[in-house]
Structures are given as C-alpha cells and as structure tokens.
Amino acid sequence: MFLRTRTESTMKNTSAQSRDGYRESIQIGLEAVSSMGNRISFGTGTMEENIAKLRNEIDIADAIVIGAGAGLSTSAGFTYSGERFRRYFGDFEDTYGFHDMYSGGFFVMQLEPETAWAFWARNIYINRYNDPPKPVYNKLLELVKDKDYFVITTNVDHQFQRAGIDKERLFYTQGDYGLFQSVNGAIRKTYDNEEWVMEAMEAQGFIKDEHGIFIPPEDGKLTMRIPSELVPVCPDDGSAMTMNLRSDDSFVEDEGWHRASASYARFLEEHEAVHVLYLELGVGANTPVIIKYPFWQRTMANERAVYACINYGDAFCPAKIEERSICIDGDIGAVIEKIS
Asked: Regarding beta strands 317-318 and 40-41, do their DSSP bridges make them parallel or antiparallel, or are they unpaired?
C-alpha cells in the first residue's frame, strides 16, 4: 500500500506547542455570540468605496489575519457540481443518482469499499492535487506577501500550500484531503495519500494529458471500482483507513496540526493591541464559531482593529463594530483583482 506516515501526533510538553489556538478561538467565538447583540449591519458605502478602504487597510495594517472558508475555493473555481462534477463523476451520477461531490461523499459510504474508494480517489485528486481553474489563491498571497500575516482556514483542499504560502503562517483546522488516518482511534498518526491517489486514478482508467493531468479517456470508459488490493489499510495495524477530515472526535490532530494551532495562538496574542486587519473570505454559516465570530470579538476588543468581509451574498457584521468594518458583497476573486 502506497501510504507514508506524515507525522506522529504525540505531543512534547514544550512552550512552543502548549497553546491551542483552535479551541481558544472557539471560546472567543462563543463569547461573541452573547456580547454582540442582535443587530447586524451590511456595511456602509458603495462597493467601490469599500474596495478602496480595503486596499488602504491592507497597505497600512501592522498585521493581517486571513480567515478563509469554502467561498474562497468556490471563487477559485472549485465547484462541487455542474460541468466539473459531470466530467469526473458522470458515471457515478448516472448509476447512483447524486449530483454533486459533497452528497456523493456521504452516499458512497454505504457501498462496498472498492467503489467507495474509487469515488474518493477522484474527489481527492481533483480537489487536492489539481490547481484551481482560477488563480485566486495566488493573487491573494501576492497582496499580503510583504505583510506580517497569518492564515486560518477551514478548507481542506491544500490550495494555500499549492499557491506557495509560508507553511509557518498557516493553520488548516479541519484536516486535509491529502491525508488519511486509521479508524483505530489508538493510532494517532496521519498518512500522505498522494501516491495511492495516483495509482487509484490510473486503475479506474483515467489517462494523463500533455500536462500530466488525469482526465477521462476519449471513449469515456471508466471503472467505478479499484482493485481490492488497492483499498487503503493502515500500515501499522492493517485496520481500515478514513479521511483526515473533522467530522467528530475521532479526527486526528497530529503534530503538524498542534504546531500550527499554537502558532496561530501566538500570532494573535502578539498582535492583539496593534492595527490588525481581520480579513474574512468566504466563511459561511456551517462553522462561524471558528473564524467569523472570533474575528468579530477580537475587532470589538481592539479599538485599532478593522474587520473586513468579502462574501458573495453573505457579507455582514454586528452593528457594534460597523464603523470599523468593511463588508463587500461580491465574488472574492473579482474583488481581489480590483484591489490588485
């Protein structure tokens, strides 16, 4: 089996890793719910005025904390339905009747492992090992590369890393499509899956184009199965494997995760009294307590801080911080393009 242990999750009791930025932020987020009141604001000014304000804040802020949700990857072209879905999962759609990758990920859990893992190999491949159709991540990092910044994201598609972010400035809270973990909760490790994914794609009949990207063959004939010997098993004890994605308490927070969590906590603490721009990008209502609510609370607590939100159809802030907020209802990529 082509799986390589990424890191142990056994933590050393060091000051460098004693902070838990994830749970500290959740606690702050919960406090925000009770302290912000019920009045919300959609911001003031025109879109052009707010884009100009945001451009200025990026220039003058002492530090920038970027909080990224699914809307950022959607803006970059990582859609889970439509043409992109049909190209790589049309046979699954025709056979099983689901119409997007998200619902498909749940549906295939009831199928035999060879079929379920065939689906997941495709899902991982196009959402983790491919570049997005649009260079939104690259342009975002170009905006902040010379600033003192940190990124927290609930996205699991590894696109900040692919765009070249300094990994010491990144905390991916909910896992990574590129990692497996054992279903045996006693094994607190994660395993890189890239080699396995490439093998599983080839086994289903995908071929590489001139750029080395797996695509369906011209005749469209694919198998919706992988060989039984390719079904991933834990190299340590032979148990079944699952994705390293947070869904419950079985999620493995490995050493790299804890290190990033501690780095995030330290960055926030070191900059809590300076001019900070809390830049929220595409964060929805699924997990607001991780990014959105803590950003609100930290903005209210620091009179020098500014909160900015870019979100298509969902840009708002508490009325209590309206005067120090920038709300832009629009496509993230298009806004970044105008700022650049």
From this structure: antiparallel
- Helix (H) or strand (E) holding 325, with range, is strand 325-328
* Residue 145 tokens, joined: 């590369």
Strand partners, 190: 7
Query: What are the residues facing 68 on neighbouring strands?
Result: 153, 281
pLDDT at position 17 is 57
Per-residue pLDDT tens digits for 215-252: 999 998 999 999 999 999 999 999 999 999 999 999 99
Strand 207-208 to 214-215 pairing? antiparallel
Amino acid at 291: I
Q: Count CB atoms within 10 A of the CB of residue 339.
A: 17
Rounded CA gap, 69 and 101, in Å? 17
Q: Tell me if residue 47 falls in helix, strand or coil.
A: helix
Question: Beta 175-182 vs 241-245: how paired, if at all?
Answer: antiparallel
168 alpha carbon, distance to own chain's centre = 16
Cβ-Cβ contacts under 8 Å for 195 (sequence gap 6 or more): 2, 3, 4
Q: Are 139 and 334 in contact (CB under 8 A)?
A: no
In one-letter notation, the amino acid at residue 335 is V
For residues 75 and 282, is the Cβ–Cβ distance under 8 A? yes
Q: What 3-state class would DSSP assign to 120?
A: helix
Domain boundaries, the chain: 19-75+134-178+253-339, 82-131+194-231
212 vs 198: CA distance, rounded Å: 11
> What residues contact residue 212 under an 8 Å CB cut-off, 6+ apart?
none
pLDDT at 18: 74
In contact, 8 and 189? CB cutoff 8 Å: yes
Neighbours of 159 (CB within 10 A): 23
At the top level of CATH, the class of 19-75+134-178+253-339 is alpha beta
Which residue would you say has higher pLDDT here, 293 or 10? 293
Predicted pLDDT of residue 1: 54
Query: Which tokens sit at 256?
Result: 């790299």
Which DSSP letter does residue 309 get?
E
In sequence order, what are the residues at sequence separation of 6 or more whose Cβ sits closer than 8 angstroms to the Cβ of residue 185? 250
DSSP string for residues in 14-73: -GGG---HHHHHHHHHHHHHHHS-S-EE--SS-HHHHHHHHHHHHHH-SEEEEEE-HHHH
